[in-house]
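Narrative summary of target 7.
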Amino acid sequence: MMNAESYPEFKDLDLLILTHNYPTEQSPNSGIWIKRLWGDKPVMLIGRFKGFLTALRKLRKGRGTVIAYWMFPAGILAYLSGRPYILNCVGLDVFMICPSSILSFLFRPVLNKAVKLVFIGGHPKNVFEKRYGDRYKNKSHLIYLPVDGREFN
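Modeled conformation, tokenized:
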């Protein structure tokens, strides 16, 4: 199973996971793969629209690298925070933003400032590259969702 040790370049970083999709009491399976991947790293849960300014204030006070899941809203928050961030492009975010010329243009600063772009699966990466070409090739990485086969027995 994949976990944080699968990414040695992140091992010694002071990380904060920024996402709206993470296991809670009400939704124990929501974003379970993020929890399995990063284990005990601190997480800041954000609403898609609610609490945006509160989350931004908290991010600006912190330090270390942010792992932002989804281009929106986490990618925008990470960009505005002034902290270094790794942007994880999961799929739906890519499929919503890349087909739109306007949204693709507006997201360029977020993409430019990211330390790395991590694509969760080949199809989102292909859609992204169709829109942006090789512009972000040097900082783009491809991973696949961690799967625990025991869950299918």
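The helical segments are 32-38, 52-61, 71-81, 92-97, 101-106, 108-113, 122-132.
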